[in-house]
């Protein structure tokens, strides 16, 4: 089975892209003609399917945020399962943004759900490292067995991340650098393109820290949220990539999914499907071109 890191690199080179689109369904943001169904599963899936049909030629991966599906219970989970299956049929990599973190048999169950053979399983999952290596190793072991990937939260994009992640330790290092050293020691064997299946989440809102982390973790794939809506600037993304312009996946969610709201603030609720697709496609292509100019 092809290693996750190799799949990411091969897809990135084939599509000349390093972008990820987060699938965060907010039904109140759907146009009226997509809201008119009482079946929540069908409503979410139809919107996701429309988006996937438009973006799949331009993006490396989709990143479903699990909370937006779990909030609807079993109907939301069914929509996610159908979305994952459809995204696979379009050749997309699926990164489940689950941020799971536990130990022992519970962590093993989570890793089986998201990296095994279940209907929720994608190609990679995000992992919260707060419980230490005990909370990472079960996911890492499963990723090795299945040739899949995981992205451990390292320096996240939210403003309050500094409350914990920037704490200064007894030796003068920041906590996020200690965590980086932990990940470096746990990194799996490198794939054909020189990257490990053990990746890290590094926020676009912290370019200076990213420069240090990229130098320290040259063989680590970065999943980079926080660009655009959260304040991450295009001009500050260069340090996230290696000298060849690879190594990071830049994520955008609402600025792509709901680009039509900004484009047509007065009439977006009544847009036709063809108009909707045209606006989302234009936003996705612009996102890809912007990132390619930097990398």
Written account of the structure:
45% of the residues are buried. Helices cover 45% and strands 14% of the residues. Strands 1-2-3-4-5-6-7-8 form an eight-stranded parallel beta barrel, surrounded by seven helices. The protein has helices at 4-15, 32-35, 40-55, 67-70, 73-89, 104-115, 137-146, 162-165, 175-186, 207-216, 254-257, 259-263, 273-294; strands at residues 19-23, 61-64, 93-100, 124-127, 149-155, 198-202, 222-224, 248-252. The two termini are 29 Å apart. Helix 3 packs across helix 13 and helix 6 (104-115) packs parallel to helix 7. The chain is globular and about 60 Å long. It is built from 13 helices and eight strands. It has a single domain (4-294), classed as Aldolase class I (TIM Barrel, Alpha-Beta Barrel). With 295 residues, it is α/β, with parallel strands linked by helices. Pathway: Pyrimidine metabolism; UMP biosynthesis via de novo pathway; UMP from orotate: step 2/2. Residues 18-266 form the Orotidine 5'-phosphate decarboxylase domain.
């Amino acid at each position: 089975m092809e290693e996750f890191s190799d799949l990411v690199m091969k897809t990135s080179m084939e599509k000349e892209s390093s972008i990820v689109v987060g699938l965060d369904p907010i039904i109140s943001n759907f146009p009226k003609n997509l809201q008119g169904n009482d079946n929540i599963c069908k409503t979410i899936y139809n919107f996701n399917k429309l988006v996937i049909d438009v973006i799949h030629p331009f993006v490396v991966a989709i990143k479903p945020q699990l909370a937006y599906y779990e909030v609807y219970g079993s109907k939301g989970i069914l929509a996610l399962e159908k979305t994952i299956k459809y995204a696979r049929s379009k050749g997309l990599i699926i990164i489940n943004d689950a941020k799971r973190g536990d130990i022992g048999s519970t962590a093993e169950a989570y890793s089986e759900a998201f990296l095994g053979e279940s209907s929720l399983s994608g190609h990679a999952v995000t992992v919260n490292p707060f419980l230490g290596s005990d909370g990472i190793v079960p996911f890492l072991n499963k990723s090795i067995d299945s040739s899949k990937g995981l992205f451990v939260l390292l320096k996240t994009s939210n403003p309050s991340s500094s409350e914990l992640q920037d704490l200064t330790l007894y030796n003068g290092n920041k906590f996020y650098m200690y965590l980086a050293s932990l990940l470096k020691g746990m990194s799996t064997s490198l794939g054909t393109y020189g990257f490990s299946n053990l990746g890290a989440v590094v926020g676009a809102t912290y370019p200076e820290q990213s420069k240090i982390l990229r130098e320290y973790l040259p063989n680590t794939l970065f999943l980079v949220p926080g660009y655009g809506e959260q304040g991450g600037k295009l001009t500050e993304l260069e340090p996230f990539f290696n000298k060849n312009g690879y190594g990071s996946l830049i994520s955008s969610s609402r600025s792509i999914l709901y680009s039509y709201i900004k484009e047509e603030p007065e009439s977006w609720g009544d847009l036709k499907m063809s108009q909707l697709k045209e606006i989302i496609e234009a936003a996705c292509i612009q996102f890809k071109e912007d990132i390619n100019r930097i990398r």
